[in-house]
Design a protein that fits this description.
Layout lengths: L6 H14 L3 E8 L4 E5 L6 H21 L8 E4 L3 E7 L4 E8 L4 H16 L3
Antiparallel strand pairs: 1-2, 1-5, 3-4, 4-5
Helix pairs in contact: 1-3
């Protein structure tokens, strides 16, 4: 896969997520096909499984919104009693996924995810 953005830029963008969002446990950029492009994961998290689940969640969420005539997906959130998982499109080919502590500020997360998504779509 060829992207407009380099490996170093992916690393920088994920590091910004960790720097700007308190409570991030893992972050990944994956392809729509469910392949890892770049990730920074906490110990014990499978990169392959995370990428596959991320692509599946995004696809299902988009289909739900289409079926319910509810517009385009902004962010998909899976909330658990010990943490949250957020998924957002980052252009036509990529997805941004973030695992957070349960007490992490979701508003800050969404703002930062949108910034990173825009930088992936328009790296110039």
């Amino acid at each position: 896969m060829a992207f407009k953005i380099t490996e170093e830029q992916f690393e920088y963008l994920l590091q910004n997520i960790f720097d700007n969002i308190d409570g991030v446990r893992s972050a990944a950029i994956v392809s729509q096909e469910g392949l890892v492009v770049h990730s920074v994961l906490e110990e014990g998290i499978s990169e392959i499984k995370l990428a596959a689940m991320t692509a599946t969640i995004l696809s299902v969420a988009e289909k739900v919104l289409t079926e319910l005539k509810s517009g385009m997906l902004d962010v998909c959130i899976v909330q658990g009693d010990e943490g949250n998982f957020c998924v957002m499109e980052a252009g036509p080919e990529l997805i941004l996924a973030i695992c957070l502590n349960v007490d992490a500020r979701m508003d800050t997360c969404f703002i930062e995810m949108r910034k990173v998504s825009e930088k992936i779509k328009n790296p110039d």
